[in-house]
Records
---
Amino acid sequence: MTETKPLILVRPPQGLAALNLHELTQYGELVRTFAQREILLRYRQTALGVIWVVLQPLLTAGIASFVFGKVAGFAQGDPAFFLRAFSGQIAWTVFGLSIFKISTCLVGNSAMLSKVFFPRLTLPVASTVAAQVDTLVALGAFLLLMPFFHVMPTLAILTLPLWFAALATMALGVGMMMAALMVSYRDVQFVLPVWLNSLMVFSPVQWPLAKMAGKLGALGALYLLFNPAAILIEGFRWSLMGGSLGIAAWQVGYAAVSSVVILLGGLLIFRMQERRFADVI
């Protein structure tokens, strides 16, 4: 009588299991170590150190206040226009700085990637965490400046974590796409700054969306469909400044769904290219 042996079928994981997200919980300490290292290296050998975290958005907001406020006339009847520009710049730190840091995290750690095995996903997540430290410091400076412009927080500030999370989620998705592409195509590192600067100009970072949308007319709604980050940036500003949001509920929902879709898309592309990183980089 022959002994029957069980048939074992080995199949690759399907659906969300294929993304292997549990690595982040297993290697949480590694994410923290990478984030700390990035923060320390960023301001090493600088005379002002961490002061640049506040000084950069302040200077940019000051220039924007002059160009868009005085020259373009957006500041008419708005004594707190500088504060609005500063809040938009903080939102851009959550989004733009995160994308830039995540996009370069693989190429910047090429020696380690080719010699040591560790979950590659820890690098973009650590870059996201490190970028948000800058955001928190800038937010602290913003809150200190509010009384000088006679602006006080409203109940809208309770929604700040939601806008913050949506922007960071979208940035992580875009950043992972760029990081995976940059490993194979170094041209991305030259195109990326141009794209980010253009996106900042055409997003309500340094100018109010309500006034610009009025000038765009019917094109305003189409513009928001192709740039959901603009909705999140304006919502981020509203949570800090209060007043009227000026964005429809469906647009907010569209931006939130877009953040999740972009994150999943970026994660999928990152995972598909992950096996080639050590060989190509």
---
Amino acid sequence: MNGRFPKVVDAAPIGPSLGPASRRVPGFSRIRHAFAQTFARAVARRAETAKVLSEVLHG
């Protein structure tokens, strides 16, 4: 990750919603972590795109 959005991973509402079942699955936290990183990257990319678009549109 580019390090500009470190809080997005922490804020991703993935784990708690699944509850205790997630703890019983071996390797699930690794999968969740990978998903959270992917999610954060997508959010960062979207934010970057929006910023560039607004700069282009508004000069």
